[in-house]
């Protein structure tokens, strides 16, 4: 025992823990799990729900264990008839002020309030009376806000402020009228929301949900006049198995492809192909900027939440953002131009569905710049959660599926395309190609571990390629993006390339990924690392691991696009971004 340790007694057991430890964590050390709702290990302590109350000898009344620090000689009781009754009363009050629609709720079976009520023995509604009523905020194309299901735990506005730095949400009103809302009671569409969906991930109930596209997809699949093509983002294969009780980090590429075919999709393509295509365009753009010392640093543009953020909060830095469209939008453009011509189909008869880990993708497909002759390039976006539900509702036993293969030619990809799904992956993939473009010959180094940052908030590295020294930065989450952008604006830092991912961990931690299995939370570094490891494992097993060596991509340029940065490539694969009013993403 050191001078920094504290000895206390919990439920009759002596416990030695470091100073500043909370009572909740001290109890966990000896195998006691104190129930909680508002607590989240990656967010600040709120102490709002009071479900985690315990009795401290000599202190009246009960205290919240999540934000009460241990003290020398403390005697604590975590369980007694009085404590259990008080906790149960708190949960019963929440239940009685909650909509009675568990069986039809998005979170049925995966709701923390529901699970807590069951474990505490809440079997009836005892406190009948007036229930809060709030209109459903369905204005956003990405995020739906249902305040009637809100339990005022504060997780949503803490993640929005502390992890994403957007501060779109806050509690407004008092007492029974308290509600979580954007500023001045505005709806989600008329706010500074960047559509990242992290509020969905941390919400213990279903007060925040993604806008569903499943009905539109079912309709297209059942339409005999539509050719329905699906593309899948790299992060999906690293997380989809969690929805079927597989261990986090289990690669499920083949089973995912087979499941999509059984759902009725006419062709199954890999967004990783377009990630390789993105690297071809981005590498060309980056090399041109370096040669001409123009608009440096070059900042990646693959994350739609990040693009919404920079347009609204840092519009003066837009000239530094890559003009490359996201891999999803590039793939859709290729499908409705090159592939449509190849199979002799009218692009208007092709319905493109993207399976994405990101709810901001639902916003991205509505942007007018991502259309072709007035026709949307991507017709619908399904999150990993939505796809999991569709597979289950179709009666498919995912774990017993055989391994399938993507369709050609837009299903062929390299290891570089796979690692796009984790923070640092886009930059590493680009370096694998840029190094050879700069040197004009093969570059011995393949893996750039120093830029990998699935759980590192902010990583800065200097890499030497021949005679060229590149200063690099990787930002994980938008709070860290702000640090990088402020340093660029002030002149404190001079970077050549910056990768920014809106969500913690990158796409693997996106707002549309599966709700975490028991024992994890969505911001858990362990969960993020396991998902990232799945992508790096797939990368290491690929025969081809550099984007420019993708033969299908080479053929696309030869037959259709011409060359990276050329006229056709610029038309289909590039765009421009514009300042947007801070009051909302319009």
Describe this structure in words.
- The protein is α/β, with parallel strands linked by helices.
- It folds into 3 domains: 5-79, Ubiquitin-like (UB roll) (Roll), CATH 3.10.20.740; 94-210, Alpha-Beta Plaits (2-Layer Sandwich); 215-573, Rossmann fold (3-Layer(aba) Sandwich), CATH 3.40.50.
- It has helices at residues 23-29, 81-96, 112-119, 155-163, 198-202, 214-221, 253-263, 271-292, 304-313, 327-343, 360-364, 384-393, 415-418, 425-439, 478-490, 525-541, 551-561, 567-573, and strands at residues 5-10, 13-18, 53-56, 63-64, 75-77, 143-145, 169-172, 179-182, 208-210, 227-232, 267-270, 298-299, 350-356, 371-372, 375-376, 380-383, 458-465, 468-476, 497-501.
- β1 and β2 (13-18) form a beta hairpin.
- α8 packs across α10 and α8 (271-292) crosses α14.
- The longest helix has 22 residues, at 271-292.
- The model has no long low-confidence stretch (mean pLDDT 92).
List keywords for this structure.
586 residues; alpha/beta; Ubiquitin-like (UB roll); Alpha-Beta Plaits; Rossmann fold; 3 domains; four-stranded parallel sheet; 19 strands; 33% helix; 14% strand; globular
Instruction: Order the strands across the largest sheet as they lie in space.
Output: 2-1-5-3-4
Task: Give the helix level as a range of percent.
Answer: 25-40%
The biggest sheet, with number of strands, parallel, antiparallel or mixed sense and barrel status, is:
5 strands, mixed
N- and C-termini, Cα separation: 58 Å
**Number of H/I helices:** 18
Categorize the overall geometry: globular
What number of structural domains do the residues give? Answer: 3
Query: What is the overall pLDDT average?
Result: 92
């Amino acid at each position: 025992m050191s001078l920094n340790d504290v000895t206390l007694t919990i439920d009759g057991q002596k416990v030695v823990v470091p100073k500043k430890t909370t009572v909740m964590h001290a109890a966990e050390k000896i195998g006691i799990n104190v129930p909680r709702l508002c607590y989240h290990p990656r967010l600040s302590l709120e102490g709002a729900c009071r479900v985690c109350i315990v009795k401290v000898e000599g202190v009246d009344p009960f205290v919240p264990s999540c934000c009460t620090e241990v003290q020398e000689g403390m005697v604590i009781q975590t369980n007694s008839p009085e404590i259990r009754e008080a906790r149960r009363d708190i949960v019963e009050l929440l239940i009685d002020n909650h909509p009675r629609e568990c069986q039809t709720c998005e979170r049925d079976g995966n709701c923390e309030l529901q699970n807590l009520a069951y474990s505490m023995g809440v079997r009836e509604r005892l406190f009948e009376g007036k229930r809060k009523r709030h209109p459903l905020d369905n204005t956003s194309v990405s995020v739906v806000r249902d305040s009637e299901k809100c339990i005022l735990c504060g997780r949503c506005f803490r993640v929005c402020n502390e992890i994403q730095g957007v501060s779109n949400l806050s509690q407004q009103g008092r007492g029974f009228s308290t509600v979580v809302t954007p500023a001045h009671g505005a709806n989600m569409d008329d706010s500074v929301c960047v559509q990242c969906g992290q509020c969905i991930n941390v919400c213990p109930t279903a007060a925040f949900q993604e806008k569903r596209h499943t009905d539109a997809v079912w309709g297209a699949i059942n339409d005999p006049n539509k050719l329905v093509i699906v593309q899948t983002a790299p992060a999906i294969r690293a997380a989809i198995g969690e929805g079927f009780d597989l261990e986090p980090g289990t690669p499920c590429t083949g089973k995912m492809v087979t499941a999509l075919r059984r759902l009725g999709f006419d062709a199954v393509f890999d967004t990783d192909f377009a990630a390789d295509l993105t690297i071809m365009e981005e590498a060309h753009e980056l090399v041109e900027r370096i040669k001409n010392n123009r608009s440096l640093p070059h900042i990646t543009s693959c994350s739609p939440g990040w693009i919404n953020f920079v347009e609204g909060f840092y519009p003066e830095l837009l000239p530094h953002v890559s003009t490359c469209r996201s891999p999803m939008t590039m793939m859709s453009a290729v499908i409705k131009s090159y592939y449509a011509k190849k199979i002799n189909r009218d692009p208007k008869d092709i319905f493109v569905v993207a399976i994405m880990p990101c709810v901001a993708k639902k916003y991205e497909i509505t942007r007018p710049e991502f259309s072709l002759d007035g026709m949307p390039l991507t017709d619908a976006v399904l999150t990993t959660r939505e796809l999991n539900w569709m597979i289950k509702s179709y009666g498919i036993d995912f774990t017993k599926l055989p391994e399938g293969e993507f369709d050609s030619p837009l299903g062929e990809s390299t290891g570089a395309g796979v690692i796009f799904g984790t923070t640092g992956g886009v930059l590493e993939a680009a370096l694998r190609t840029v190094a050879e473009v700069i040197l004009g010959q093969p570059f011995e180094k393949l893996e750039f571990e120093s830029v990998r940052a699935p759980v590192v908030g902010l990583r800065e590295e200097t890499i030497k390629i021949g005679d060229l020294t590149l200063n690099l930065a990787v930002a994980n989450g938008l709070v860290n993006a702000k640090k990088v952008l402020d340093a660029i604006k002030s002149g404190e830092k001079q970077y050549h390339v910056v990768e920014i991912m809106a969500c913690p961990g990158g796409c693997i931690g996106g707002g549309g990924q599966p709700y975490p299995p028991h024992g994890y939370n969505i911001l858990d570094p362990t969960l993020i690392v396991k998902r990232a490891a799945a992508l790096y494992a797939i990368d290491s097993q690929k025969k081809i691991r550099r984007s420019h060596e993708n033969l299908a991509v080479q053929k696309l340029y030869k037959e259709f696009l011409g060359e990276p940065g050329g006229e056709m490539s610029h038309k289909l694969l590039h765009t421009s971004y514009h300042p947007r009013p801070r009051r909302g993403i319009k």
